[in-house]
Automatic annotation (TrEMBL):
<dbReference type="GO" id="GO:0005524">
    <property type="term" value="F:ATP binding"/>
</dbReference>
<dbReference type="GO" id="GO:0004798">
    <property type="term" value="F:dTMP kinase activity"/>
</dbReference>
<keyword id="KW-0808">Transferase</keyword>
<dbReference type="InterPro" id="IPR027417">
    <property type="entry name" value="P-loop_NTPase"/>
</dbReference>
<keyword id="KW-0067">ATP-binding</keyword>
<dbReference type="GO" id="GO:0006227">
    <property type="term" value="P:dUDP biosynthetic process"/>
</dbReference>
<comment type="similarity">
    <text>Belongs to the thymidylate kinase family.</text>
</comment>
<dbReference type="Pfam" id="PF02223">
    <property type="entry name" value="Thymidylate_kin"/>
</dbReference>
<comment type="function">
    <text>Phosphorylation of dTMP to form dTDP in both de novo and salvage pathways of dTTP synthesis.</text>
</comment>
<dbReference type="GO" id="GO:0005829">
    <property type="term" value="C:cytosol"/>
</dbReference>
<keyword id="KW-0545">Nucleotide biosynthesis</keyword>
<protein>
    <recommendedName>
        <fullName>Thymidylate kinase</fullName>
        <ecNumber>2.7.4.9</ecNumber>
    </recommendedName>
</protein>
<dbReference type="InterPro" id="IPR018094">
    <property type="entry name" value="Thymidylate_kinase"/>
</dbReference>
<feature type="domain" description="Thymidylate kinase-like">
    <location>
        <begin position="7"/>
        <end position="187"/>
    </location>
</feature>
<keyword id="KW-0547">Nucleotide-binding</keyword>
<keyword id="KW-0418">Kinase</keyword>
<dbReference type="GO" id="GO:0006233">
    <property type="term" value="P:dTDP biosynthetic process"/>
</dbReference>
Length: 215
């Protein structure tokens, strides 16, 4: 079986760029890699409902922290077979966002920390009840909320299909979410974490070696 590796971070942290760089670095080490990004917009009805709610459709759905978390979780539940198959075929399955995103944003919206009730509930839902594969490693691409917000704003201006959603537009939420992410990483929530400075530029080659040889 391959290794399930997740890249996490704030909106605008640069997860897509790191995914591309890490994929190249792993290929250079002779490893086969496949990638998947969550939410799976355009491929999952639950993901599409999330996007629509975040752009002020479906009444007050976006206001329900638990309701939105269930939609995110159902999107991932629908991908279990694909992830499992990919782990049989590839050395590394690299995910852009996974369960920790749901934990971090939901806890932040409720003004809870990583040790709060929401994170415990979310783990029970996604891991125990839905049976999602536990990651082998998680990467926190850490940038300040201010830099992440600037990047998200530039992306919204330059990409016609990337208008900022309700979460991305909430600066205070991003600050709280960064704090929850830091504690999840520090506590090794679900699996070991690697913290990468997203402002200094990541050493994808070194990170790839750590992922391939975790000991």
């Amino acid at each position: 079986m391959g290794r399930l590796v997740v890249i996490e971070g704030l909106d605008g942290a640069g997860k897509r760029t790191l995914t591309e760089a890490l994929t190249k670095a792993l290929h250079n080490l002779g490893k086969s890699v496949t990638t998947l990004a969550f939410p799976r917009y355009g491929r999952s009805v639950h993901a599409d409902l999330v996007r629509e709610a975040l752009h002020h459709e479906h009444g007050d759905l976006a206001g329900s922290v638990y309701g939105m978390a269930v939609l995110y979780a159902l999107d991932r539940r629908g991908a279990i077979a694909a992830i499992t198959d990919d782990l049989k075929l590839h050395d590394v399955v690299l995910l852009d966002r996974y369960i920790a995103s749901n934990a971090a944003y939901g806890a932040a919206r409720l003004h809870q920390d990583a040790g709060g009730e929401f994170v415990r509930w979310l783990r029970e839902l996604e891991i125990t009840r839905f049976g999602l594969p536990v990651p082998d490693a998680q990467i926190l691409l850490r940038v300040s909320p201010e830099i992440a917000a600037e990047r998200a704003e530039r992306r919204a201006r330059s990409e016609v299909d990337r208008a900022k959603d309700a979460f991305e537009s909430d600066d205070d939420l991003q600050v709280r979410c960064a704090s929850v992410y830091d504690r999840l990483a520090a506590e090794g929530w679900l699996s070991p974490w690697h913290v990468v400075d997203g402002t200094a530029g990541s050493d994808a080659d070194e990170l790839a070696r750590l992922l391939v040889h975790p000991g």
